[in-house]
Amino acid sequence: MMGALQHAPELAANVTLKAPVVDSSLCSMCGDCANACPTHAIDVDKEGTVSVQNPYCVGCGACVVVCPDGALSMEAFDASELVIPDKDAEELARQKAKAKAEAQKYLATGKDQLNKVGDALERMGDDKKSQ
Q: What's the predicted TM-score (pTM) here?
């Protein structure tokens, strides 16, 4: 899934994914959810904060099932969160867009100049016909 979204981020709008969300007011920080997670997408830090790393979650819901406090629920999240920005590709796209805009400017300027030359040649032809 992540590979497809990296290659075509616009597909994220068509994808519905669910991941666990923690209600910290219910959570006793027992760590059962982290232990049950097959992909280690859930972590309980030293301060007892439970966090979910959506890019690693497969949406199996095992954490919700094992939570004795009912502190976890599966909720939809935006699949575009899985797209990891590629700074090099973004810079290259920016440079290409800039070059394209500059080329369009030169093209417009060239067309303007050709039209002026064409008009001048046409006037010269009209002047010779009237003589």
A: 0.54
